[in-house]
Amino acid sequence: MFASIDRRRSAWLAALLLYAVAAGLDVARHLADDVYSGNREIEFPEIAVAFSAGLFWPVDLIAKALLSMR
Hints:
Layout: H1 2-36, H2 44-55, H3 57-68
């Protein structure tokens, strides 16, 4: 009984860690895009956008793919 609970907890922890790593990479990509375009500075609104995009990175990837087809 406890072994199945531990496995389930480990699976959720692994999924959460993968999501967090992907979110961090998405935030870094957004901030790098902001640095290489525009005034070469990262301002507070850009950090807020990068953070919110990082939280919802699956939606961000889908939106980016749909916009690139336009």
